[in-house]
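Worked example 2:
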Amino acid sequence: MLIFGGILIYDVIVIGTGAGGATVAKDLAQSERKVLILERGSLQREGSYVKHMKTKEIHLKSNLSDEDKIKYAFLTRPLELTNIEEIGGTTTSSIGNACFSCSGCYTNSIMQQFEDKNLDIFEELLEASGELNVTYFPKKLWGHSTRMIAEAGENLGYIVEPMPKFIDFEKCRLCGKCVNGCLFDAKWDGTYFVREALEYGAELVCNFNVFEILHDDGEVIGVAGIDANNEKHVYHAKRVIVSAGALNTPVILKNSGIKNVGGQIFFDIFTTIGGYLKDANLKNELMMGVKAEFGPYFLSPHYSMQLLPLMNECGINATEKDVIGLMLKFADTCIGTIDENGNIEKTLTKVDVDLIKEGYEKAVSILLQMGVEKQSIVATSLKGAHPGGTAAVGEVVDNNFESEIRGLYVCDASVIPEAPGRPPILTIVAIAKKVAKIVNQSLLR
């Protein structure tokens, strides 16, 4: 950190504390760089994160046939896009899924997308897996419903395998409440790395809303934003890393004059398909403990609070413990935009609809195999919790994750070119570790 002409200049400013921001701040602080972390939110109490989840309704454009509008009525409802703008970001409400995003599961995985652009993060993926203590969900801990779903899928000829998780299963109570934030210190989230960054000497400013990256003659010099007192404040740094998430990062970049931003947004869309199975009690099991892969989509046990009201509307007399469900998550087409005000337009293409219909029918076949009553089967509205693509490698940033402004980097799901159809947190941590190495090396020059 320098003081030049009375101005404090940090080595690095990191904007955001999700999977990317928390990791890159920790790694750079550990390397004895003077790091300032700017966070839009603040630290929340464990067990309360779902209360801080923001939901935005997106009215998708589509050309659904009249038949599809009836049979797949859930496709006619607005998509619900969720995120959390507090310390740790959306990692705090994750279910701890640690997919490796490799081409073995899906030919257009993140790893393959990067390899096609001569970008290698394999070493960092291994480092991230080690630091997050990733392990597969042990079969001896599978709950009753998870076992039934796995057995039903295998009976239909599907390959069902345990989900890798960044969860310490010696501490995990298998309560099914991961989305609230773990009360038992069993699940990793971004707050862990933020605390480590502070221990290594980083500084943290909460409730600070960055609206612009400052630059001079094509080189970054700092950031401007609004503080907790609603006053404008400027911070200076040699390097700036934007990790504000795929919805906020493009707004900051657009306001800073960066071109080609926000033109190919994806949501990694999912829906939960479920029905009545007496005393299934999936609600109180660890969610998404197993998965069945089908290329651009996968199925996994999942409970949604929307299922019971939908079943009740169909005349099904059930309680929460009688609900069983499967998440269908798929790689949606990157046809969508986000503007400088955060307004989103998104199209549900025929390719998307066909994938949803195919996955839906497989989920229904598993439910029926388990003995779920056909008339009770419903599906939630489409949802998105892992948007990306808004500052993609090759479009907005180069293979060093650096923008057209020298010294300005992007380090979150924004840089992923196309939807992976898989939980991306582990891969984002790996990307962040790569960015930390690149930035650290650049500061030596």
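The chain has one domain: 2-442. The domain at 2-442 is CATH 3.50.50.60 (FAD/NAD(P)-binding domain).
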